Amino acid sequence: MTGQENNLTILFVDVSDSTRLYESLGDAAAFREVRECLALFEEVAASYKGRVVKTIGDGSMCVFPNADAALQAACEMQVRVLQRQAQHKHKISIRVGLHHGPVLLDGNDVYGDTVNTASRMAQVAASGQIITTGETIDLLSPAHRSATRLLDALPVKGKHDAVTVHSILWQTGSDHTQMPA
Asked: Which of 20, 26, 79, 150 sits 20 to 30 Å CA-CA off 175?
């Protein structure tokens, strides 16, 4: 149905520094690695009741019914890419941004401010990081909310007011923790 509004969580994920990957591996090998990552994103999204709406270069835009499902998918994407990296000699990492809110559904595609905000969160994310908004954090279950860290309120292109930005703590280490299941 064209123009139907729905509340969904939009997740953008992309392979970080793919230009370096293409330069170091060559076009064919890098393309193969990126395609494997895109397939991984699709598989993980589906396992959390989400779907890939479209692939954009070396990344994917996904939709999920709620913030918890998207956050769990984002964490699993990070973990699985990290596991893949351990099996290869080259470094591949991803960055993820997500935001929950109203979207317009048009066929299989989604549009609106929520999509734009999620895209901006992915742009803010560093390699190996998951970034989301304060609005999305408020929708998470308590267990998932406890595995986040407030970063700052940042100006975001296209937004009048600054957006409160949080990092999802998904990995063990000095400034990350494993995301609860």
From this structure: 20
Interior angle at CA 11, CA 28 and CA 51, nearest 5: 75
How many whole angstroms separate alpha carbon 72 and alpha carbon 122?
A: 16
Q: What is the C-alpha separation between 122 and 130, in angstroms, rounded?
A: 8
pLDDT at 17: 83
Structure tokens, 102: 């109203």
Give the N- to C-terminal CA distance of the chain in Å, as an integer.
34
Nearest to 67 by CA among 149, 148, 9: 9
